[in-house]
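User
Here is a favour to ask of a fellow structure person. I am asking you to supply a protein in sequence and structure-token form. Please set it down just below, with no commentary around it:

Assistant
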Amino acid sequence: MSEAKYAVLIGNSEFPQDPKLLQPLRCPPKDIAALNSTLKSPKHGRFTKTIVLENKASDEILREINEVLTDAQKGDLVLIYYSGHGKLNVLGALHLATIDTRLKILDTTAIPVRRIRDLMDASAANKFILILDCCYSGKVGDAFLKGGVEEQLQEVSGGNSGRGIYIMTASTGIQVAQEKERDEYSLLTKYLLDGIREGKADFDDDGSVTISDLFKYVSESMRQESFQAPMKWDLNVQGDSLVIARTGQAKGTRRGNEIEQLLYHRLRFRDRYIIAGLTVGGALGGGLGLFLMRLPISLLLFGSNDFIVTRLFTLFYSGAIFGGALALGIALAAQLWKAGEDPEKQSAPLRWARKSRSASNLALLLCTVTFAIAYLCLAVLGGIDLEMKRLIPSLAIGLALGFGLSLSLYGQPTAGTRLGWRGWTLRIGIAGIVFALVQLHSVVDRTATLPIVTWGTEFYARYLVTSDSRWMQEMSARPSLLSYVAEGDAFLVGIALAVGVTLGLTKAADSLARWVATVQPDRE
């Protein structure tokens, strides 16, 4: 015959007989409801029977305790829990306040802890747990430590593991117990529930929570948060420490969860650095690509002067912004895609991306958006009017260019891989054509003004009136030549950005891969 487990859960929050001296409490009803759910659960407590007594009179509570202790047989476990006000009589004996309690006549309107001990002594059961979450609960020792040392340490007959009386209190005999405004449960009960439900008290990771495990966790946690010092007694104990509940997890799960959590934090730390590293790599690549493309053209057509040098560094800055925006889109897409493998972390965009079965679709979207935002920001910094008629075309151009460049970066190589000549041809071809088409819009529509146009017509037309070079004189005399040059230059700008971002991302990915392997290895 299997051993039964009984629980009597007492919670008193209202004290109408003495409202001035016994203030109402908020947590006791929630305490006993949560414990009842936990103890009855097949996952955790597996208790045979639980009795919940909320705001009941002292005589009714004693009657229920007496009935349970009378029904319990040898080998059964009886748990008695109280949450409410603990009060001391004139002799210093602990009493548990109930709905009919009056402090003036405490001995006859409350539950003397000594009475609970007498009922336990008369019971056939030999496993008892008493948990008191109330003020002065440490005074319970006066009622239970009634004899000499020999009586408390004696070994009773029988081979039942974990037999004896186990007592846990929320405070010492001179401390009050707390219920904090931000907490749903009383302080002791909060950590009792955490220790069982979350498996935090399962220090040996065997899937079960003993009284010793639970007190160790509760004591450490409460001392970190509060002045309260919980107390524990084991009386007439024989055998191993009594198991009060199960964590609901397989043996070794807690350790596995700790390792998983540690790895998750390490991976989050690593992922932030990967995103930053790839963004910087793309920014440097884009800036250098545009700078190096324009450098020989500028020197050939305009010669060397301070204005050209300033212009070139402005181009590097613009290229770095564009390249960084594209790289950020790719880096974010990669990390979000990986996060999307966990169904609990999937947002709507991640669900869409995973449904489409292509991380590149997500990268394409993010690259387009980040580039368009960067383009619009540079346009505003470059002096564009903050009017819808100017902002909307600028945003449209940014989206067009961003989509084109993102499409060319669609198959971004990972660390240790290369594109090959077909991949490079497709990449630079798409990027160059997109920029040429946008520039063609400016050539055809002479009234169109493109903000921060770092390629094509504006770049050359700016110097026609000031330069006396033969190239500038030739283009001044033949306006159509300027259009051809502008188209070719825009094509080269697209190629420069695509090549720069690709090389910057690849180099950054190679460096990060070596760093990750050395400093923060993967889960495997």
